Amino acid sequence: MRIRDIVFPERPLFLAPMEDVTDPSFRIICKEFGADMVYTEFVSADGLIRDAGKSLAKLNIYDDERPVGIQIYGNQTGPMVEAALRAEAASPDLIDINFGCPVKKIAGRGAGSGMMRNVPLMVEITKAVVEAVKLPVTVKTRLGWDEETKNIEEIAERLQDVGIEALTIHGRTRSQMYKGEADWTLIGAVKNNPRIHIPIIGNGDIDSPQKAREAFDRYGVDGVMIGRATYGRPWIFKEVRHYLDTGEILPQPSVTERVELAKHHLERSLAFKGEKVGILEMRRHLSSYFKGLPSFKQTRLRLVTENDPAELYRLLDSIAEQWGDVDFSNQTPENVLAHINK
Fold this sequence. Notes:
By secondary structure, the chain is an alpha/beta fold. The protein has helices spanning 24-32, 45-49, 53-57, 77-89, 104-107, 119-132, 152-161, 185-191, 209-219, 236-246, 255-288, 297-303, 309-323, 333-340, and strands at residues 2-3, 6-7, 13-15, 38-39, 43-44, 68-73, 94-99, 137-142, 167-170, 200-203, 223-226.
């Protein structure tokens, strides 16, 4: 598979763009575990135009994470074009347009998946962005707005016709949000449409190596994107790659290995964002690495409230000392997730 000059290995694995999750430190961690492509958190077109600090900070990318895409969202053609040009100036490998975010404050004003109720405008914005930038333009979207309007096959053709070079499809409608099971049948239908020649990347409920292989083998997608299953488990990319290549399930990391990974992640976060923001944005990850440990509530509370880096490192070391003998190595990924989610 390739997106213009970006050449991927067979059956590539993508890290989904996720707000407050896929910052540079996490993206690089996922790359170290074998993610073939990563994306920034989505960036507001209006925020970029206003030079809003939070939006501008999301444009920071690093060579260690390439190939990397900057994802933008908005509901007006002019601002989206200007935002795309500003994103291009940050030198990503591609520009991705978000037509899939289901959150009310985004979709409710016609951006993200809200654009699925105005396909002509979606196509107009995409065409304008493609014509404005020199980089490849890709799109991430959903099956439709609701069960009665699953129009992804029409959308895929129209977006391809105006020049996008890959399409990622999340297998739910906007009305589903993240409930129920992702429907991969329509993703497969788009991929197997004889008119479609761009890469189709499937997304939704990929939380095990077996599900990733099914996505490739049963539905024929060119790539698989993994999102929520990476919370506290960035090594899922290594698990999936090993299984695709060998058919074998890798053992789960021990508590001690998770502690070392958390310390490595914290170090990167502090280096990229400074002490205050680095610690604040690590809290989701620090608690997630240790889900499922017995009698862990008080320790988790300390992980998400401590502001002193030195104390956080000491706390992580104490986790290894106290729970180092808890071992998930003989569990399958499905059993580990079931244990974690109890």
